[in-house]
Give the backbone structure.
Amino acid sequence: MAARLFPAVKFVIKGSLAGAAVYVAYDQGLLGSGTQGAEALKKAQAALPPAIQEWTSYIGWELPPTPKFDFSPSDSWNKGVQTVMSALSVAPTRACEYTVEGWKYVKDLVK
């Protein structure tokens, strides 16, 4: 009986952890717009170093200082969207060009 119950307990625990992770991400604004994600990143960058410093001093470890990143998720997101849309806008033209080149190649092979 315990052997049949163990997989169910594992599944419930894993599901609970996954649900909690999604809830925390939603609650912190990570699943919202790009500006909400940028604000959440700034909050995390402000809150994590003091927490890590407190934890390492409690344990007695010494870590190097955290690097400073000048990274804007909204700019990266916009650049990615622009790149994808640019590729999609030229896709039909490129497909026609490649088709013509392919037919020329096949005709040259047949001759």
